[in-house]
Amino acid sequence: MKLLALTPALMGLVAFAQASTITYTTVTGFFLQDETATDASTFDYTAVNFGLLNRTYPADQKLKHAKELTQWERFYNQVEQLNDESHSDIEYKVLFLGRHGEGWHNAAQTYYGDAAWNCYWAEENGNSTATWMDAELTDNGVDQALVAHNFWQKEIDEQRIHTPDNYFVSPLTRTLQTANYTFTDLKFPKGAAKFSPLIKELFREGISIHTCDHRHPRSYIHDLFPEWPIEKGFSEEDELWNGVTAETSAAQDVRSTTVLDEVFFTSASSKKDSFVSVTSHSGEISSILRVVGHRTFSLNTGAVIPVLVKAERDAKAKATTTSVAWTTSAHCTVPPLTSVTACVCPSSAVPVTTPLVTDV
């Protein structure tokens, strides 16, 4: 589905959408993350070659020196063959979906506990020791991004992996920082695409009333990384966050479909740009996985999941408009009384649905 008229008035209440003409499916059998036996909570992508399975491919038969190639070289050749032999309305891409490293909002949620965080503290800009509105990375988060950096370099050096042809990044600060630490100063293979990520609004985290989901202005983002391109039409102020209404999972999946439609079938040579990096967030990556039909696979902060996606375009499909509602979220106006499983506001402070932070 394609979002229409992304205005504050509309996005604060309902997402209007036009049905997508592209169907996405995950092509399984290539990564450990595809398999139900793989436990996401303990999975370490750096220990298992990004999860790429050790196997032969149909495309190996056409290689003269297949035994001399690494697993990633042969897999890239397999993806190329899939694209070469497919109809013009079918496209295959490998999405490297990377979650940002730990941010100050993650640390605060751990400190306060889920219940108190969700119904009060997440609606604040921060406390006396930390700020989590559009949170920056903690020192631990920087270290996690550097783990990804070092692993990419190892894969380049030892596996001769084909590095991404295109890079995309969410506009939130923690993802911008993660992408920077991960890919800047890598010793890329000869002829590799330059790391110059396109900042795209719709790859952001699921939009809740939490201030960590409220992005900085466009000018702030540009000043952080002035050489990185920002997509056309990107607004100066955040028009999607209002501190009152939040995306439902259905609304977020509409958004994720829209942004994937902007990644696939982009040009006549789009099939050749088959490896794509997206630095994003846990909620948004979960949404993308739902859209492409992948099994649920939650990422730890700083982790990466590659997914082989088949996109099939229906040129004869007729556009239809639909709508997906957002929801209001009640929260406390003062620090709550909490239990293990729920948040309870003090009796003198009933839950409200107005923003705690007024400078939005």
Question: What keywords describe this structure?
Answer:
alpha/beta, 6-stranded mixed sheet, single chain, 3-stranded antiparallel sheet, 26% helix, 360 residues, disordered N terminus, globular
**Strand percentage, roughly?**
15-25%
Spans where pLDDT lies below 50 across 5 or more residues = 1-13
Average pLDDT across residues? 91
Continuous helix count: 9
CATH secondary-structure class: Alpha Beta
**Kindly, what is the distance between the CA atoms of the first and last residues, rounded to a whole number of angstroms?**
29 Å
- How is the CATH topology named? Rossmann fold
* Tally of structural domains: 1
The CATH superfamily bears the name Phosphoglycerate mutase-like
Shape: globular
| Main pleated-sheet profile | 6 strands, mixed
> Helix amount, in percent?
25-40%
Description:
The protein is globular. It starts with a strand and ends in a 16-residue tail after the last strand. With 360 residues, it is an alpha/beta fold. It contains nine helices and 13 strands. The strands form four sheets. It has a six-stranded mixed sheet with strand order 3-9-4-8-5-6, sandwiched between helices. It has a three-stranded antiparallel sheet with strand order 1-2-10, with helices on one face. The chain has a two-stranded antiparallel sheet with strand order 7-11. The longest helix has 21 residues, at 139-159. The chain has a single domain, classed as 3-Layer(aba) Sandwich (Rossmann fold), CATH 3.40.50.
